[in-house]
Specification:
globular; four-stranded antiparallel sheet
């Protein structure tokens, strides 16, 4: 079971997306209980996020899946990125699972 899991995407310009995988799980459960097909409820499509990242390599996208403590919301993560983007990026890299990264790790050589 998904406890409190998020998909998080950012680039060189800052945070771009945060999606709660737990919320998707809840919506799927309610759809099943209401007799609707679970396919009516769409998860965050991280593959589309990845295609966006691959199509824009100059923006150095990073996509992570991260578990958080109970009570943490997507809005909390957005606020933390707004308050201290580098600290949050480092925290997500340390605690999360990398799904995609085009992180610039070396200085560019200018000839």
């Amino acid at each position: 079971m998904i406890e409190n899991r998020f998909a998080i995407m950012w680039d060189c310009n800052g945070l771009e997306a945060v999606a709660s995988l737990r919320e998707f799980s809840r919506r799927k459960m309610w759809a099943m209980l209401e007799g609707r097909a679970p396919a009516d409820v769409e998860p965050p499509n991280v593959m589309l996020w990845r295609f966006r990242a691959q199509a824009n390599p100059q923006r150095n996208y990073e996509i992570y899946i991260m578990d958080a403590e109970e009570g943490v919301t997507a809005e909390d993560i957005q606020e933390a990125f707004a308050a201290s983007p580098q600290t949050m990026a480092d925290t997500v890299r340390r605690l999360g699972h990398q799904f995609y990264s085009n992180r610039l790790t070396q200085e560019r050589v200018i000839v």
